Amino acid sequence: MEIVPIPVDSYTLGFIGPGKMAESIARGAVRSGFLPPSRIRTAAHSNPARRAAFESFGVTVLSSNDDVVRESNVVVFSVKPQLVKDVVSKLTPLLTKNKLLVSVAAGVKLKDLQEWAGNNRFIRVMPNTPAAVGEAASVMSLGGAATEEDGNIIAKLFGSIGKIWKADEKYFDAITGLSGSGPAYIYLAIEALADGGVAAGLPRDLSLSLASQTVLGAASMVTQTRKHPGQLKDDVTSPGGTTITGIHELEKGGFRGTLMNAVVAAAKRSRELS
Question: What is the number of alpha carbons within 13 Å of residue 66 lying toward its C-beta?
Answer without folding.
Answer: 2
